[in-house]
Amino acid sequence: LLGNPKEDVMKQLYLLASAVLLASSAFAITPKATKDIPKDKDAYIAKTLTAAPEAVSKNATIIRVNDTFDVTETLQKGTNNFTCGIEPDSGNPFCADEYSMRWYKASYTNGEPPPGFGLAYMQGGDTGISNHDPAATDHSHWVEAPQHIMLLGPGVKELAASYPRKLDPDPMQPFVMFPGHKYEHLMIPVDREPGGTQ
């Protein structure tokens, strides 16, 4: 017999969030994010590996992507469900699960996010974005987040409903990025070390 689909999704979300929060205690403090995208293979991989805990990134597929999030080169074939790279417009390293890679592709091509939910790591933090619209270029409602994880996709909307939805949030606290937008998602900072910096 099938269970209640809504309850099943919420159970999966709570299990995912619990696992993420437990894993976050192992994160180290990282330096402020930069926009550089290394051309050298070894330097590119080194920057990419800062996106997630070593247990995730060392077994992940590592790629280069273009400005429509198409893979242009595979630098390492992985054995887990994660793909890591550097965002082409921001220089932010990321490690994303299979669903999150499809979400990324949609967001870089103004497509509809696929149904479901996913997890992406950005342990290196980010270089900032306008919180009201991912395509904005005027730096309005600008948010620079410290190291964090993201819960992505329409499947997280119910969970995200209980988190702050301000256009100018405190990025050191969990908040909804792009509130009300089709790409809204939950940002959860994971720097738990006292005296940590962005």
Proportion in helices: 10-25%
Oligomer: single chain
Sheet with the most strands, sense and barrel status: 8 strands, mixed
- How do the SSEs run, as a string of H and E? HHHEEEEHEEEEHEE
Number of helices: 5
Shape category: globular
Strand percentage lies at 15-25%
Find the count of extended strands (DSSP E, 2+ residues).
Answer: 10
Structure notes:
The protein is α+β, with helices and mostly antiparallel strands and 198 residues long. Helix content is 24%, strand content 22%. It contains five helices and ten strands. It has helices at 5-24, 41-48, 54-57, 98-108, 157-160; strands at 61-65, 71-76, 82-86, 93-97, 118-122, 129-130, 142-143, 148-152, 175-177, 185-189. Strands 2-1-3-4-5-8-10-9 form an eight-stranded mixed sheet, sandwiched between helices. The chain has a two-stranded antiparallel sheet with strand order 6-7. The longest helix is centred in the first third of the chain and has 20 residues, at 5-24. It is globular, with a radius of gyration of 16 Å. The N and C termini lie far apart (48 Å). The model is unreliable at 21-30 and 192-198 (pLDDT under 50).
Q: What descriptors fit this protein?
A:
single chain; 198 residues; alpha+beta; 8-stranded mixed sheet; two-stranded antiparallel sheet; 5 helices; globular; disordered C terminus
